[in-house]
Amino acid sequence: MKTEITNEIELEDEMNPDFLFSTTWNDLLIQIVKGEIDPVQIAKKTLADRGLNEANNYQYLTWKPRRR
């Protein structure tokens, strides 16, 4: 299903920012609005967990052996 946005570009629903929080619980949205949760920091952490940086480039992790 495609949705039109204001600048006449059609986006898939999954890529449309208007639907970003459509499945987010109200309690979490309220915490975001109050400034109790920083969605930008969460997005950065999620990208890092996926091995990506803000430019969508793969970040190579430096592996260090654990000391015993």
Can you offer a commentary on this structure?
The protein is of the alpha+beta class and 68 residues long. It has one domain (2-49). 29% of the residues lie in helices and 9% in strands. It has two helices and two strands; from the N terminus they run ββαα. The chain has helices at 26-34, 39-49, and strands at residues 2-4, 10-12. The protein has a two-stranded antiparallel sheet with strand order 1-2. The protein is flat and about 50 Å long.
Number of strands: 2
Shape call: flat
Order of helices and strands: EEHH
Strand proportion: 5-15%
For the largest beta-sheet, the strand count, sense and barrel status come to: 2 strands, antiparallel
Helix proportion range: 25-40%
Question: What is the end-to-end distance?
Answer: 54 Å
Q: What's the helix count?
A: 2
Structural class: alpha+beta
Strand order of the largest sheet: 1-2
Number of domains: 1
Low-confidence parts: none
Cα-atom radius of gyration: 17 Å
Query: Mean pLDDT, rounded to whole units?
Result: 85
Pick out its properties.
68 residues; alpha+beta; two-stranded antiparallel ribbon; 2 strands; 29% helix
Write the layout of secondary structure elements.
Blueprint: E1 2-4, E2 10-12, H1 26-34, H2 39-49
Give a brief rundown of this model.
The protein is an alpha+beta fold and 68 residues long. It has helices spanning 26-34, 39-49, and strands at residues 2-4, 10-12.
